[in-house]
């Protein structure tokens, strides 16, 4: 198979784009997709200080690498989740990546707060992934506001978002659907802007990028995510993609295009029925929250 | 036989060759969008032929929870 652009030997074939690229042209393709996502969704401006949430996996490390290459002042933040060897291994990869490139990294360890994810999940009797989401949102937002970062960037990719969309649609989660977009705007001094610059790239594309760039990432899956429904949704979408290449992109990007019309009608109807809650400060930790105490404080004080 | 190593699980399997990457994944019931295939340190496109006696690595790319 030959590279579509330069006709050299291809190293990555992309069925969803009916194409294949050599290493150099693939790097250009990936950078173009990220630039396009940032521009299309007005995620950030050159000169913005960006806090990148890095787990040690392929997506977040590839994102950090890409934002630096594209000229953003991107600093890393890693949350050590306290999940035994898996967390130790993840932290090691993140620290290695930052040290090799001389990039600043902030590390917060849940063990130091005596709130590792397995303990919180056991105590609250909630699924580990749900607990992990609450804790991550809390610390990433807190670190962004304390550090004066205008933007928080996460490594969510097209597969993540298409899978999430499928799950939200299957259960008609209107509340979640209304918040599913690649940019969530900042709210005053309470919430930093959240962006997903990899939203146009599949997991296979970010993995190929990480491998070809020589990024040393954690390949093992989080032991807590075994059997997670989000993985099932991704599997189903990959089967559809295999039969009909391009399905994932048209599903998610089509949703983003049509969503605004849906929300307009839905929000008006909802606001007629009930006044939406206002964002305020949690009286315990001071974080932004719709409830008092916030989800994080309720979870950690169980 | 082609030796196939899964980098995530460490499991090994032998598949009768020669086969293209596309044929190999079909035989293993793997979906192309969910994995990458490497030989030595080189990524392989789906048309590449793998001979008997060669070793390849399967790298699963699906992650999350």
Helical fraction of chain B equals 10-25%
SSE pattern of chain B? EEEHEEEE
Broad shape of chain A:
globular
Please provide the count of β strands of chain A: 10
Report the order of strands and helices of chain A. Answer: EEHEHEHEHHEHHEEHHHEEH
Number of helices of chain A: 11
The total count of helices of chain B amounts to 1
What does this 3D model show about the protein?
The complex is a heterodimer of chains A (about 300) and B (about 60). Chain A has helices at about 25-40, 60-70, 85-100, 115-125, 130-145, 160-170, 175, 205-210, 230-245, 245-275, 295-300, and strands at about 10-15, 20, 50-55, 75-80, 105-110, 150-155, 185, 195, 280, 290. By secondary structure, chain A is α/β, with parallel strands linked by helices. In chain A, strands 5-4-3-6-8-7 form a six-stranded mixed β-sheet, sandwiched between helices. In chain A, a hairpin with a 4-residue loop joins strand 1 (about 10-15) and strand 2. The radius of gyration of chain A is 20 Å and the shape is globular. The model of chain A has no long low-confidence stretch (mean pLDDT about 95). Chain B has one helix and seven strands. In chain B, the strands form two sheets. In chain B, strands 2-1-7-4-5 form a five-stranded mixed β-sheet, with helices on one face.
């Amino acid at each position: 198979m030959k590279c579509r652009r330069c006709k050299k030997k291809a190293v990555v074939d992309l069925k969803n784009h009916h194409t294949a690229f050599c290493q150099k042209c693939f790097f250009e393709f990936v950078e173009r997709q990220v630039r396009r996502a940032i521009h299309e969704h007005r995620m950030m401006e050159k000169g913005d200080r960006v806090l990148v949430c890095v787990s040690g996996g392929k997506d977040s490390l590839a994102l950090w690498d890409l934002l630096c290459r594209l000229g953003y002042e991107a600093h890393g933040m890693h949350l050590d989740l306290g999940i035994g060897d898996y967390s130790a291994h993840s932290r090691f990869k993140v620290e290695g990546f930052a040290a090799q490139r001389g990039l600043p990294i902030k590390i917060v360890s849940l063990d130091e707060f005596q709130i590792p994810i397995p303990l919180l999940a056991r105590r609250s009797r909630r699924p580990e992934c749900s607990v992990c989401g609450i804790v991550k949102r809390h610390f990433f937002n807190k670190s962004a506001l304390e550090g004066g970062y205008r933007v928080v960037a996460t490594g969510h990719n097209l597969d993540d978002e298409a899978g999430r969309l499928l799950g939200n649609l299957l259960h008609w989660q209107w509340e979640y659907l209304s918040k599913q977009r690649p940019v969530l705007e900042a709210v005053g001094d309470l919430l930093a802007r959240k962006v997903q610059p990899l939203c146009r790239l599949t997991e296979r594309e970010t993995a190929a990028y990480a491998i070809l760039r020589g990024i040393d990432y954690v390949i093992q899956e989080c032991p807590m995510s075994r059997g997670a429904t989000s993985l099932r949704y991704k599997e189903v979408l990959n089967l559809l993609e295999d039969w009909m290449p391009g399905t994932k992109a048209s599903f998610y990007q089509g949703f983003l295009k049509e969503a605004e019309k849906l929300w307009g009608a839905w929000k008006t109807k909802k606001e007629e029925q009930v006044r939406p809650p206002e964002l305020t400060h949690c009286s315990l930790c001071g974080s932004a929250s719709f409830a008092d105490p916030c989800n994080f404080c309720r979870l950690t004080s169980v | 036989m082609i030796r196939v190593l899964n980098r995530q699980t460490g499991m090994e399997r032998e598949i009768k060759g020669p086969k293209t990457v596309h044929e190999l994944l079909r035989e293993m019931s793997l979906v192309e969008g969910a994995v990458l295939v490497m030989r030595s340190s080189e990524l392989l496109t789906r048309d590449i032929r793998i001979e008997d006696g060669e070793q390849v690595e399967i790298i699963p790319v699906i992650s999350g929870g």
